[in-house]
Specification:
Blueprint (H helix, E strand, L loop, with lengths): L8 H4 L6 E6 L3 H6 L7 E5 L9 H14 L6 E5 L8 H12 L5 E4 L5 H18 L7 E6 L2 H5 L1 H5 L5 E6 L1 H8 L19 H12 L4 E4 L8 H14 L3 E4 L5 H7 L4 H18 L9 E3 L2 E3 L1 H16 L13
Parallel strand pairs: 1-2, 1-8, 2-3, 3-4, 4-5, 5-6, 6-7, 7-8
Antiparallel strand pairs: 9-10
The structure holds glyoxylic acid and magnesium ion (MG).
The site of magnesium ion (MG) has 6 residues, from helix 8.
């Protein structure tokens, strides 16, 4: 008997999202250009990158771009306006009725509580049923951009099986908590530690406890390549899966920083092989073994699986082979 796996938000959420490219939904030029860029995800924006006067006309532009564009396997997302505006329901209806089959996720900004996610989930289900689309395939990406959203982030992460990612929105967040800096993502002057550590960790814990991806938001100083790298390295080191890119020049940095290095990838694959061998009968069915000077066990295998999984998803190839001890 053959079994086929139908993609759902739960399986799709494992796809790499190292670089998530913001594309203003009102700009035919950017909608065209984004298609050829090597980002893992594109999100066509109806929210803050679209001026109020063009928000309504942008809906159809976005639906047309999804239907007629060649997105080359990228994750295709549309960011709608948040539920405190009057635009959200028509954003969702126009885009999902118009292009639901060519859309992977809806990004919901400024999420404040779980109810805002379930409201979007219900609307998506009704549209999917009406349009004959597979119910539950379109995922939700939830942006945490204010104090209330962060306080409720666990409930938000648990609110729907459609949720694939929790995203940090630093610009709106900094405004929401009155952080004393205008440089998005950079440390406020006068604070001796990392002002973002708690926020990033809080989001990461909520995401990981529900098997979701954690994504870092934008870095607005697009000409400052070192600044982008520094801020990206901070969240990548903690375990974040990717970051927004606002300019094509930021894509290569994100793809590199959120992928394991070749050395770490090779090491992870070696740990997996060595552990498999030592637990096999040929290897003595042991629970732990030595790999060079390093003792490895089931916990090492779990850590190695994460790095190996990210490396494989990023297309890395092994450059070393495991040799069982003679
Ligand atoms: C993104 O939406 C942000 O506010 O940083
Ligand atoms: Mg924002």
């Amino acid at each position: 008997m053959t079994t086929t796996t139908t993609p759902t938000a739960a399986t799709n959420r494992l796809r790499p999202r190292r670089s998530c490219l913001a594309v203003p939904g009102s700009s035919p030029r950017f909608l065209e250009k984004a298609q050829g860029l090597p980002a893992d995800e594109v999100f066509l924006d109806l929210e803050d990158a679209c001026a109020p006067l063009v928000k309504e006309s942008a809906r159809q532009l976005v639906a047309d771009a999804l239907n007629n564009g060649d997105w080359g396997g990228k994750i295709r997302v549309v960011r709608v306006n948040d539920w405190t505006t009057h635009w959200t329901y028509r954003d969702v209806i126009t885009v999902v009725e118009g292009a639901g089959a060519n859309l992977d996720c809806v990004m919901l900004p400024k999420v404040q509580d779980a109810g805002q996610v379930t409201m979007l989930d219900t609307l998506l289900t009704q549209i999917e049923k009406t349009m004959g689309l597979q119910v539950g395939r379109i995922g939700i990406e939830a942006q945490i951009e204010n104090a209330r959203g962060l306080v409720n982030v666990d409930a938000i992460a648990a609110a729907s099986p459609r949720i694939e990612t929790i995203i940090f929105g630093p610009a709106d967040f900094m405004a929401s908590i009155n952080m004393k800096s205008l440089v998005v993502g950079e440390q406020p002057p006068g604070y001796p530690a990392d002002a973002y550590h708690y926020i990033l960790m809080r989001i990461l814990m909520a995401a990981r406890s529900h098997d979701l991806q954690a994504i870092d938001g934008p870095y607005l100083q697009i000409r400052n390549a070192d600044g982008y790298r520094g801020v990206a390295q901070r969240s990548a080191a903690l375990g974040f899966d990717g970051k927004w890119v606002l300019h094509p020049d930021q894509i290569a940095a994100a793809n590199e920083i959120y992928s394991p290095t070749q050395e770490d990838y090779d090491h992870a694959e070696l740990i997996l092989d060595a552990y498999e061998w030592c637990t096999s009968e040929a290897g003595g069915a042991k629970g732990s073994a030595m790999l060079g000077d390093e003792m490895i066990d089931e916990a090492s295998r779990k850590m190695a699986l994460v790095i190996a999984g990210k490396g494989r998803a990023a297309g890395l190839q092994r450059t070393s082979v495991f040799e069982p001890p003679a």
